């Protein structure tokens, strides 16, 4: 069963992103929200890790959080969603795992 993994904490404060990336499987998705969107900043190991995920894993970010943090030059594989899109993702995947 495919799982939507939701991260909201900065990748620079702890290892949640690293732990999450180890558990992602084919067909899963990762949604970055809140300070977790900082993981897509250029020239960071976090962005490199996200860009090297297998093609079978989809990367999403809440567009409001990306805009609020002034991030640009985003990875090509990143799909931005609004809040209704977030709800739709939760319904599309069999499970949702929020990394608290």
From TrEMBL:
<dbReference type="Pfam" id="PF04077">
    <property type="entry name" value="DsrH"/>
</dbReference>
<dbReference type="GO" id="GO:0016740">
    <property type="term" value="F:transferase activity"/>
</dbReference>
<dbReference type="InterPro" id="IPR027396">
    <property type="entry name" value="DsrEFH-like"/>
</dbReference>
<keyword id="KW-0808">Transferase</keyword>
<dbReference type="GO" id="GO:0002143">
    <property type="term" value="P:tRNA wobble position uridine thiolation"/>
</dbReference>
<dbReference type="InterPro" id="IPR007215">
    <property type="entry name" value="Sulphur_relay_TusB/DsrH"/>
</dbReference>
<dbReference type="GO" id="GO:1990228">
    <property type="term" value="C:sulfurtransferase complex"/>
</dbReference>
<protein>
    <submittedName>
        <fullName>Sulfurtransferase complex subunit TusB</fullName>
    </submittedName>
</protein>
